[in-house]
Amino acid sequence: MRQKKPSFFQGISFQLAKIGIILAILLSFFISAIQVYIDYLAQSKELDQLIYRVAEVATPPAARAVHTLDADLANEVVNGLLTYDFIYQVAIWDERGNVLAQADKALTESDVTWMGGLFTHDDASYSSDLIVAGYEQMVAGKISFTVDRDRALENFYRRSEINFFVSSFRSLILVVLLFVAFYFKLTKPLVQLSHEINEIDPDRPGAKRLTTLKSHKADELGTVINSSNQILDVIELSLAKRRVIEQALRTSEEHLRQIVDSLPVFIGARNADGYYLFANKALAEMLGHTPEDMRNVHISDLLKSSVLDVDTVIRGDARVINNGEEIDVAEESFISASGEQLYLQTHMMPLQYYEEVVCLVVSMDVTERKLAQAKMEHMAHHDALTGLPNRLQLVERLEHEARRAVRHGYFGAVLFIDLDKFKNINDSLGHPVGDSVLQEVSSRLQSAVREEDLVARLSGDEFVVVLTVLDHNQEVAALKAGEVGEKIRALISQAFIHEDMELRITCSVGVVVYPEKNNVVHELLRYADTAMYQVKEKGRDAIEFFNEDMADKVSRQLVMEGELHRALEEEQFVLYFQPKVDVQSGAIVGAEALLRWFHPEQGIISPFEFIPVLETSGLIIEVGQWVLEQACDVVQKWSKAGLWHKGMQLSLNISPRQFRRDSFASDVIKTIEQYNLPDQTLDMEITEGIVIQQIEEAIETITLLTQNGISFSLDDFGTGYSSISYLKRLPVTTLKIDKSFIRDIIDDRNDRVLVETIVTMGRLLGLGLVAEGVENSAQLDIIKSYGCHYYQGFYFSPPVPADQFIALLEKRPSK
Ligand code: C2E
Ligand code: CA
Ligand code: CA
Fold first, then answer.
1. Is pLDDT of 440 > 70?
2. Residues in the ligand 1 pocket, defined by CB under 6 Å
3. Is there a single domain that holds both residue 751 and residue 681?
């Protein structure tokens, strides 16, 4: 703030002049008064002496005149005395008191006024006795005269008055001159200085300097100005430094701000009262604000569309701010300002923000992931076409049901229903008609059973009905199941009307009553399935219960088991290789090793037939070990021959029983140590079923092997659980999309959606994607458009023996 300029009368020179004048007047008055007084005393004394001398001179003639009674002489003396202008009455008396001579003169008024007034005297009369010489003892007469003292001192008064005025005037002049000198020497430069100081811009104090005054270079003013200028220099310098630092700070803050704003993450900071102190662009925009006006927005203004209430949020913030806790919210639902449903994954942590500790909130938009997950989860449990529970849910529910039946001692039944010649409808009338028939079948099945029963679609035209709590007696339960089965058969065989067309279809039903001795769900389904096949073999459109004969089929497996033992000893197994190809470049990036059994009598037997037998018998352990050694051996050979390049991968199928063995990982590590394979050469294909039951152990096994240079793929993806929550946790690198989806991808919209979802989700999770069973270019084009990375299939090559695979490698080098 500028200082007000002092008025002239407040200036130092005027103040000094005022004091000076008063002091000068007082002093000169006082000194003059003393001087006048001293002079006056001297003058008075002198006058007294004069009067005394006058009297001394006049007395002898007067005495003589009295003695001789000489009146003339007396008059002469009287007149002589009157010549003194301050004597105005004289009289001489004889010894008897008679006046001998007397005279007086008129008094003129003296013009000494005020000074005379100060000392005014009454007229003084002097008298003395007259003594004649020789007659000293006798008084001859008396002489008296009156003196006007004022008149006598008149000259003295006049002089004193003049002196007094002159000295007062001199003092006055001195004061005025001093005043002028002060004004020019002090007040004026001070006024200028104060004016200049006032002019200093507080924001830019160094812009101007105080003017040095030539005439004051050496004095105190000069020093003040110099020192002030030095201070201004120092301030200017430090301000300049500060400006540079501030600029640097602003720049770095700006950069930081840009980084924070460009992140696709919501970042904000709230204080303990729930006010936002900061929000990045993404957050502000999501909330319908700008980052600037987000400041001081209260959380209650934003939570209208959240599942959270203000108190919960503020409590959470307080935990972070007061206790220094970090809080993770895995998933919160939020509606953005534009009305969009978002799912956020939020991390909250304390942050020192200027003077206070605030809650830093960082949220990631996981909506896409969440939606894919929800979709996948629904798909995982439901059949897209009919909305019925799928195999996964069926297995879960049936496991539960079977346990309950054992616990409560009652019986239920599983009905395996397969439509007869459904393929004909699809082939002749097209998939849309087939789909609507399946939907109709599904609703007829649901109408045939009770609320507590379960209808599921396994695949294509296969349905399963679980009838829970039929009876405590096994035979009665079987009877009831038969009745329901008949009802279903009758319902299904009723005509379907499709666009004025009457369609007829029948079904084959296999029934098994549960619980059976130590049966597990998969076996129950297999029994029902076997019974259903029995119906098919007998001519369809009927119901069959699982029976002893069917158990024979199981015993046939035992025969195969024996043969498989021999097959291993006699080396009837061979590995085939199917190339894995890059969708974009068409280059071979690896291969899948597939087992073949050359049966001495029956020729090549499909792994679909013998792998389950190897599994149940436990032989898979030895065969699996053989496959691993073969694979290592062959890759080592190819590598040496320069056919197998770094980066190519050979995939091996690992069956559940193999994988779950405690020593699996250590056996594998021991084996591969014996070979000289580049890192990341081997890949193991496992199915979700393997992991899902013992996920922690599975993660441990996979992690251990991953550390030893082996990667993992999820085989037949999409047919099983396909739950994103497992996927996130499993350290696998690749998903192999099951060939059943690729097969119908051209005609079946559901399959297209599913494949696209899997690819999207896989890419989101950073996984490699392989499409299996690609048989033609149309299928390849579709998966290519979805962004799938690799494929396998007859389109490029079926699984082939090693020599043929080498030929492929040589023809189509990997890079
Ligand atoms: P998978 O792992 O799904 O193997 C892919 C199957 O798809 C192979 O059947 C392959 O011949 C077949 N395939 C490849 N391209 C096409 C195509 O374009 N169209 C069609 N329709 N099919 C195609 P494969 O060789 O009969 O093997 C059947 C299953 O047996 C394998 O299914 C795998 O689960 C299992 N398996 C094969 N070898 C082994 C093995 O060494 N160990 C274990 N544990 N299981 C194996
Ligand atoms: Ca496989
Ligand atoms: Ca597969």
1. yes
2. 578, 594-595, 606-608, 611, 627, 653-655, 685, 715-716, 739, 772-775, 792-794, 799
3. yes
